[in-house]
Amino acid sequence: MTGKTLLDIRGVHTFYGNIQALNGVDVTVNDGEIVALIGANGAGKSTLMMTIFGAPRARSGKIVFAGTDITQLPTHEIARLRIAQSPEGRRIFPRMTVLENLQMGASLDKMKHFDEDVEKVFVLFPRLKERIDQRGGTLSGGEQQMLSIGRALMARPKLLLLDEPSLGLAPLVVKQIFDAIRELNRTQGLTVFLVEQNAFGALKLATRGYVMVNGNVTMSGTGKQLLADPDVRAAYLEGGRH
Amino acid sequence: MQYFIQQLINGLTLGSLYGLIAIGYTMVYGIVGMINFAHGDIFMVGAFIALIVFLILAALFYSVPVVVALLVMMIVAMLFTALYNWVIEKVAYRPLRGSFRLAPLITAIGMSITLSNFVQVTQGPRNKPIPPMISEVYNIYGVSISLKQIVIFVVTAVLLAIFSYLVNKTSLGRAQRACEQDQKMAALLGIDVDRTISITFIIGAALAAVAGTLFLMYYGVVVFSDGFVPGVKAFTAAVLGGIGSIPGAVIGGLLIGLIESLWSAYFSIDYKDVAAFSILAIVLIFLPSGILGRPEVEKV
């Protein structure tokens, strides 16, 4: 069921000032796939997620989404092509209620399917429904994570970027979120590109995976291949080197 | 007692105008983190545009109903003043966004001087009077309240109601608040941050233009330097109420108006500004972020 290339990242170099964060990254995400990007802290995973949105902008290389070159587009126009992200640090609007945060997510969809979509998010994360009128800043870390993912889903994205969806969540909730991602992918064909430190869970979930070290993609393969790879196992799965 | 209530009414009138201007300061501060020192002059420009519209109406028509005249003045002033502020933001502030904090502040002071000198050169340095538009005064139990004051209260209340609906209930207002809280995230959700900032300047200017029109109607006179003192007072009001907080700006405005007129009534009118600023200083000692402001540091 995976189809043509949806997101194509070619030779992307990104800098923070003079510090190089990405060093010629090539990543491809096909329609209908779940692609996981794993790697240690500081490898450049989150930078790649933000570079897709042009914040920071790639200094060289090319990013193509659904046939459109988005390398130089303003961030909001990239988002309007229906790429949604649950970013690093969750970035919940702290002085907006849960409902308003979800409404912000739906602004990409011009609020056209708000009632229907918000119900789906509440089925996924019933906790958010209990907190509906509470301010985002007062939620616990786990609740904020749910809200961040829910908000991204409200946009009805063609491509969903998840930066560490399991961060700060109880194992049970992590399982629930991974199940939800799998379900959305299977039933609606949602394409997901996720960054994870929880390499085992991510690779089990993913169709394909990439391993990132110091701003370079060093390895790629199907989720199963990477799970079986001795280097990957040593570095990310059995607590070995890092 | 009547005297006290009389002063209360006078203070609230003044305070309504301060409040309308203060919203512009507070919104701009909230979204771009800068003090738009030209905002007081934007208010003055609004008053002048209202004056010009008044003169045109007077020249063209033998008589115009006061309500119609006021409405036309207000709407035209809102449009043109918004245009001024929109251009100022685009030309003077946007290129400096992201540079060091003092740069936009200095530019804003420059824009303030530019505007007041521009008006001085084009409109002349003297007071510009208009004949009284409304002169009815009602006497209730020894307290006199003029129709002008009632107009100011009503217009302010209606405007604040519309405005708070806009900010709290519409998607435009949500986008505005989102940009205030996290511009990067707002952009990730497809919000055009630059456009939202432009709209903030436009709304702030429109409210200041209404304050300018009401000021002209109330005092019957305006001069190019009229932007400065009301501007500083409104800025004080915004800080007193908690800069960044919209209800705070209104409360701050009313308080400054009340302090000023009550002080003038019971003590020396010469020291009314000293009184207003002293209260500000005292409040800021005990509530550094103002009455409704939030502390700068937030739990993340």
TrEMBL record, chain A:
Highest taxon of the lineage: Bacteria
Keywords carried by this UniProt record: Amino-acid transport, ATP-binding, Nucleotide-binding, Transport
Domain ABC transporter: 7-239
UniProt-recorded Gene Ontology molecular function terms: ATP binding; ATP hydrolysis activity; branched-chain amino acid transmembrane transporter activity
UniProt xrefs under PROSITE patterns: ABC_TRANSPORTER_1, ABC_TRANSPORTER_2
Cited InterPro entries: AAA+_ATPase, ABC_branched_ATPase_LivF/BraG, ABC_transporter-like_ATP-bd, ABC_transporter-like_CS, BCAA_Transport_ATP-bd_LivF, P-loop_NTPase
GO biological process, one term: L-amino acid transport
Stretch forming the signal peptide: none
A matching Pfam family: ABC_tran
Recorded family membership: Belongs to the ABC transporter superfamily.
The protein's name in its UniProt record: ABC transporter ATP-binding protein
Protein's organism: Manganibacter manganicus
TrEMBL record, chain B:
Localization per record: Cell membrane
UniProt xrefs under InterPro entries: ABC_transp_permease, BCAA_transport_permease
Membrane protein topology class: Multi-pass membrane protein
One of the GO BP terms on file: L-alanine transport
Keywords per UniProt: Amino-acid transport, Cell inner membrane, Cell membrane, Membrane, Transmembrane, Transmembrane helix, Transport
Top-rank taxon: Bacteria
TM annotation in the entry: 12-35, 42-62, 68-88, 100-120, 140-167, 199-222, 234-262, 274-293
Any one GO molecular-function label of the UniProt entry: L-isoleucine transmembrane transporter activity
GO annotations of cellular component type: plasma membrane
Primary location: membrane
Similarity remark: Belongs to the binding-protein-dependent transport system permease family. LivHM subfamily.
Name of the featured protein: Branched-chain amino acid ABC transporter permease LivH
Source species of the chain: Manganibacter manganicus
